[in-house]
Amino acid sequence: MKVRLRNPDREVEVAGGRRVREVLGELGIDPDTVLVIRDRELVTREERLSDEDEIEIRPVISGGARMRCRRCKAPAVVEVRRHNAAFCRGCFVRHVHEQVKRAIAAYDMFGPEDRVLVAVSGGKDSLALWDVLLGLGYLADGLYLGLGIGGYSERSREVVRAFARDRGATLLEVDLAQEYGFDVPTAGRKGSRSTCAVCGLSKRYVFNRAARDHGYDVIATGHNLDDEAATLLGNTLRWQTEYIARQFPALPAEEGLARKVKPLYRLSELETAAYAFLRGIDYVVEECPLVAGNTQLRYKEAMNRLEAASPGTKSQFFLSYLERGAPLFSAEDTAELHPCERCGQPTTARFCAFCRARAQILGERLGEPRGGDEQGERLGEPRGGDERTSPDRELARSLSEEVLPAEIYGGPAR
Amino acid sequence: MKVRLRNPDREVEVAGGRRVREVLGELGIDPDTVLVIRDRELVTREERLSDEDEIEIRPVISGGARMRCRRCKAPAVVEVRRHNAAFCRGCFVRHVHEQVKRAIAAYDMFGPEDRVLVAVSGGKDSLALWDVLLGLGYLADGLYLGLGIGGYSERSREVVRAFARDRGATLLEVDLAQEYGFDVPTAGRKGSRSTCAVCGLSKRYVFNRAARDHGYDVIATGHNLDDEAATLLGNTLRWQTEYIARQFPALPAEEGLARKVKPLYRLSELETAAYAFLRGIDYVVEECPLVAGNTQLRYKEAMNRLEAASPGTKSQFFLSYLERGAPLFSAEDTAELHPCERCGQPTTARFCAFCRARAQILGERLGEPRGGDEQGERLGEPRGGDERTSPDRELARSLSEEVLPAEIYGGPAR
User: Fold this and answer.
1) How far apart are CA A24 and CA A61, in angstroms?
2) How far apart are CA A210 and CA A117, in angstroms?
3) What letter would DSSP give residue B113?
4) Is the pLDDT of residue A408 over 80?
5) Does A265 contact chain B (CB < 8 Å)?
6) Is residue B131 within 8 Å of B125, Cβ to Cβ?
7) Residue A52 in 3-state DSSP?
8) What is the Cα–Cα distance from B64 to B43, expressed in whole angstroms?
9) Chain A hits for B313, Cβ within 8 Å
10) How many other C-beta atoms lie within 10 A of the C-beta of residue A265?
11) What is the spatial distance between Cα A160 and Cα A385, in angstroms, rounded to a whole number?
């Protein structure tokens, strides 16, 4: 029997005549973390496979087996262990829509008249989000940011374009290299920030700018429950109280900063992947080639282990944070925002973190020398005197929705 | 080459002529989690072993190899990765003493005139603590509680008695079955609480009572950094804010409740084990036979994985909680304490949680019917009406220093 595995793509031969769970067991794969596909259909873990079958094992999804849909009692195709529930295709789609509706209502994220800009990377989460919002009748356009990560970025762009074309949806595109003169791999090599840091910084900058320039009311990103739980774990392991305070499903607009929302925060990675598959969304399954060793992945692993031993741990962690933890943390971030002298985007410093990073990457000097500072500013480096802390504070602010800047919009760093 | 492994005790034969780390690698053992002993001496991970060697691999300790003591430059025997340091025997003992002195000073735990009651289980942590306190000249007596867990409890008692005898130290003993009519295994079978819950409850009760009856100023328990980090993780995963608020290295005395302190909170499990070994303390290495599947162990595993990838994660988690997290959580526990009508120990209810659990285990009725309550009280069950929440609230209070009651004093549940 031929088995196609992903990340990296490879094929293995294993003996057939066994159940899906036995094959997964032999391959050392946790059935809760993959989707098993045969002839373009999901197969459940109790399904028997024959030697002639060809299957694809795709992370990350759960196939519920011989179970009945909680709602309509039809055969189930997806199991959601933390709810101790399984759903057929139609009812699962409804379940996802309802979770998103609930999220939007709980934080008054946006209304039917609001123009929503969905940050789409080509991955399962952001495309699922766009699909759900269109399905619910919201005015949702997409924004794709070309990061210049070789074939990976090209494939992502094609997937996003095809998605928009098929649905007659509006897609904005920004290419980092064309607009700003650098791509993410170059930035990682030349700047003082890590690749993931500069990628996250660029995303936040471009999204905010596009939302303002094109008159959108709110930016929606595809962060799911697993992302939020992992980020919260990272922030809590260091008790970074300012970051914890700002890790909220909806951040209000501030002077020059668009409102930001995460309508998928109630859905696990498994659910967004199942949704994307069941809705026939062609998404980029491969991971960003630059992301290896990302600490966020370690936190996800830790949460997944705890979840496996005790289903519901992840959602309890994040949702009980929202309920009981968050009220105790108040954002102490009272710094005034004013326009960056270079680009006009909001910043607490003279130049915004993006302009400083960009100048450093491009080897440019930013701004004129001022006062007694004859060296001018070497941007991207902390400045002396009273302002010593402001670039750091501002970076902290720019990162404050998520400590790990790679994880900004369901993008390549997933 | 003969290798003796512990928990469970077993011997394996492996090929010699290799370094310690290679042997550990073959056995799938993380070198940071074990002590490797040959001829009663620690050997480091770069040491070469011969076919004739007999070694013992004892959890949990780190052997630093070919390293020099940070302080005196003598060959090191213990490595503390999160400090990026290694120590010789003498300097390591000094390091442990200093960490304990620092803990005592930071929370003003007790002074040279105070009578300290050390809760000793026979495990590495509580005996190391007693040894350190005696070494630092404090007035420290021991208290051993016999839990009746078969040979395990018997061996623990012998170890504790031998420790006290060798040092001419004072040991109080309480036997749960003799004093209160039940042992822990019986309690686990007969009561409505889990074995670990009733064990923890009994420990807290007996310690507090002994401290009051014998005029001690403070109870000291052997909780180490790993215990505290794992408990904090469990509390934080559920955002149990009241428990988080009370997870402090020193809890002040209250009406009828003795002051409680944890002088080892700055030292990892690895450090307490190394200390006990290097000081020649004979301690019980085996784990409590009733503890399998304990959730606390899962949290420890999760923390250990994160620590392995990023040394210092554990201590950063707990120490940054103390610094930045704890001030945000204020104990909302304002319930009045008054004496239990049965035993006189403090409680928020009519009878204390221990008396209720005990009555349930022994099949007794506790107290007379009162008011309109013709059924009397079936204790250990929530009562109706206005008082419905008080047993729960009180149990919460009794557990509030640690959610997982098994982990109370460096005892069998470790």
Assistant:
1) 13
2) 9
3) T
4) no
5) no
6) no
7) coil
8) 8
9) 237
10) 26
11) 47
Instruction: Count Cβ atoms below 10 Å from residue A138 Cβ, excluding itself.
Output: 22
Q: Cα separation of A230 and A296, whole Å? A: 6
Q: What digits encode the pLDDT tens for the residues B235-283?
A: 999 999 888 988 899 999 988 899 999 999 999 998 999 899 899 999 9
Q: Does residue B8 have a cis bond before it (omega within 30 degrees)?
A: yes
The rounded distance, in Å, linking the Cα atoms of B353 and B200 is: 11
| Contact indicator for B19, B66 with CB cutoff of 8 Å | no
Contacts of A238 in chain B (CB under 8 A): 316-317, 320
Cα Rg of chain A, angstroms = 22
**Per-residue b/e over A187-211, b at no fewer than 16 CB within 10 Å?**
bbeebebebbbbbbbbbbbbbbbbb
Name the H helices within B279-329: 295-309, 313-320
* Whole-number pLDDT of residue A296: 83
Residues in chain A: 414
Among candidate residues B264, B274, B258, the one with its CA nearest the CA of residue B223 = B264
pLDDT digits (tens, 9 = 90+) for B36-92: 888 877 777 778 898 889 888 887 633 334 578 889 988 888 888 888 888 999 999
B134: pLDDT strictly greater than 90 = yes
* Whole-number Å distance between alpha carbons of A92 and A321: 26
Q: What is the pLDDT of residues B88-107, one digit of tens each?
A: 999 999 999 999 999 999 99
Any residues with CB less than 8 A from the CB of B372 and at least 6 apart, and which? Answer: none
Tokens 């962060």, residue?
A: A223
Higher local confidence (pLDDT), B50 or B114: B114
Is B237 in Cβ contact with A316 (below 8 Å)? Answer: yes
Amino acid identity at B76: A
Tokens linked to B384: 């109706």
- The structure tokens listed for B102 are 């620092």
Which carries the bigger pLDDT value, residue B23 or residue B158?
B158
Q: What is the token pair recorded at B409?
A: 């004093």
Q: For residues A370 and A376, give the distance between their C-alpha atoms in angstroms, rounded to a whole number.
A: 7
Among candidates A238, A241, A301 on the partner chain, residue whose Cβ is nearest the Cβ of B328: A241
Cα angle vertex A207, ends A204, A211, to 5°?
140
Joined tokens for residue A286: 């491969």
Average pLDDT score over residue span B144-165 = 96
B7 touches chain A (CB under 8 A): no
Choose the closest CB to B238 out of A299, A301, A320.
Answer: A320
| The two three-digit tokens of residue B318, written as one number | 């707990």
Question: Ramachandran region of residue A68, left (φ > 0), alpha (ψ -120 to 50) or beta?
Answer: beta
Residue B335, SS3 per DSSP:
coil
Q: Encoding tokens for residue B207?
A: 């310690």
Q: How far apart are CA A111 and CA A411, in angstroms?
A: 25
Structure-token match 């819950």, residue found: B197
CA angle (B17 as vertex; B12, B23 as ends), nearest 5: 45
In the chain, the amino acid numbered A352 is C
With a cut of 80, say whether residue A317 has pLDDT above it. yes
- Kindly list the distances between the CA atom of residue A52 and the CA atoms of A5, A17, A18, B189, in Å, as whole numbers in the listed order: 17, 9, 12, 52
Tokens linked to B155 = 């061996």
Residue B340: burial class (beta carbons within 10 Å; 0-12, 13-18, 19+): buried
Q: Provide long-range contacts, Cβ within 8 A and 24+ apart, for A389-392.
A: A390/A335, A390/A348, A390/A349, A391/A349, A391/A353, A391/A356
Contact B62, B81 (CB under 8 A): yes
In angstroms, the CA B159 to CA A113 distance is 74
HEC string for A297-354: HHHHHHHHHHHHHCCCHHHHHHHHHHHHHHHHCCCCCCCCCEECCCCCCEECCCCCHH
Contact yes or no for A305 and B301 at CB 8 A: yes
B403 has pLDDT over 60: no
Distance from CA of B75 to the nearest CA of A (A): 34
